[in-house]
Design a protein that fits this description.
25% helix, 137 residues, Alpha-Beta Plaits, alpha+beta, 3 helices
Length: 137
């Protein structure tokens, strides 16, 4: 599976993340999306995308069978504390993942000007960049 597919599987399986982004137990209610976040999407929600793929060549001129990428995961909410709580749950899930190895590289807290875009609500986003490594599939 791709790193992105494994990230979605990991986030949707994490109890703390599910508690913040779902309504009910149906996978159809999980709010984990490929970037960008759709306008007027129900919050809180998560978006993800691959920023870059990193290649490390060994002495034997191979990459060692590792897929290494930088993945941005954005945690969206209508309050600052909601976005921070979701980001903490996402970080815990990513760092503790069994499908891949992840480390937090950077985190930023941003506010979105949704009033200008017609959403009529404040939106907060915590943007987390993770270095993710997994075996090539």
């Amino acid at each position: 599976m791709t790193a992105e597919a494994n990230i979605v599987t990991t986030l949707e399986a994490a109890t703390a993340v599910k508690a913040l982004i779902t309504r009910g137990d149906s996978p159809a209610t999980y709010r984990v999306y490929a970037w960008p976040l759709r306008q007027n999407e129900t919050l809180p929600a998560i978006t993800y995308f691959r920023l870059t793929t990193l290649r490390s060549i060994s002495v034997a001129n191979t990459d060692g069978g590792l897929d290494t990428s930088v993945q941005q995961i954005d945690c969206w909410a209508t309050t600052y504390t909601g976005a921070q709580a979701l980001a903490t749950a996402v970080q815990d899930a990513m760092i503790g993942a069994s499908l891949f190895s992840a480390s937090l590289e950077d985190q930023q807290v941003l506010t979105e000007d949704d009033l200008r875009e017609g959403r009529n609500r404040p939106t907060y986003r915590v943007s987390c960049d993770f270095i993710v490594q997994q075996q090539d599939s």
